[in-house]
Amino acid sequence: MNSNPQQLDAARTDRLAELRREVDSHRGDRPHDEWSRIAVSEAIEAAFEGNAAIGVLLVGPGGEVIARDHNRMFRPHFRSDFHAEMVLLTAFEETNRDADLIGHTLVSSLEPCEMCMIRIINAGVTNVLYVSPDLGKGAITGPNALAPHWARLAEHQHFSAADCDPRLAEIALEAFGLAIGDVVEKLMARRSQP
Q1: How does pLDDT run across 135-182, given as a tens digit for each residue?
Q2: Which of 40, 52, 89, 187 is the least crowded, having the fewest Cβ atoms under 10 Å away?
């Protein structure tokens, strides 16, 4: 794990370290606590790397975690499409070329954005859980409705908040807030380069 992020100031780094310790020691009894804890842990790792603080995992039909990852838009190098869900699904599809995702569950630390939502629909993941909503902005709770063809493809998929300790949702949103300003600044800097 990278514990020496170059992109974050000391106060934010210290706060992320506190959140990491809290998540690592969390032991809850709600149905999705363990999956949520893993997703939030991945989100914090993404923030430490200078990426957007979003983590994700894929759970098999039997409840076993089969893959986990996080946003990698800036590290190891810039890739605008390396949102957490995209990274995880690409890796799964590359190593499991004939597999489908029927019966699988994708758990994200933050409600998926619209781009990731379309990718999840295309991949056919049966269940999608998010630890923290991105109220008013996410693809599930946000203002935009799916186009009819996407809505038809998503008819057999289920999207909802994870049934987890509310503290995990608070941590997920706080970690995202600690990192997103720097992410936006890096994106803005890319636009101002000659």
Answers
A1: 777 888 776 778 888 888 889 999 999 999 999 999 999 999 999 999
A2: 187
